[in-house]
Write a structure and sequence with these properties.
Layout (H helix, E strand, L loop, with lengths): L2 E3 L4 E3 L2 E8 L3 H10 L7 E2 L2 E5 L3 H6 L3 E2 L2 H11 L14
Parallel strand pairs: 1-6
Antiparallel strand pairs: 1-3, 2-3, 3-5, 4-5
Length: 92
């Protein structure tokens, strides 16, 4: 199981955020997030939004740090990229 995380550089709600992704499946990503106790509500289309203070937790748990550009490339090449405006199927 490999999941990836980009640096916490995305502003929102008064803090900085990272994106946690899988290049294999959403199931893999959901399992990893569950092990980290990340709430399912943090899942958005194709990634989990993780606040900056949880970045080190994710890396300690096995997430591989990559650039934001690499996150997009990994999702796209795996066929898991879901752009804004596309409907997310139930349960994902």
């Amino acid at each position: 199981m490999t999941v990836y995380i980009d640096p916490p550089t995305w502003p929102g709600h008064g803090r900085l955020w990272s994106h946690l992704v899988s290049d294999v499946s959403y199931d893999e990503l959901h399992r990893f997030a569950e092990e980290l106790a990340v709430p399912r509500r943090a899942f958005e289309r194709d990634h989990y939004d993780l606040p900056a203070h949880r970045y080190a937790d994710a890396v300690r748990a096995g997430a591989v740090g990559v650039s934001s550009r690499e996150v997009v490339r990994l999702l796209t090449e795996a066929g898991l990229r879901r752009r804004k405006g596309r409907r997310t199927p139930p349960g994902h």
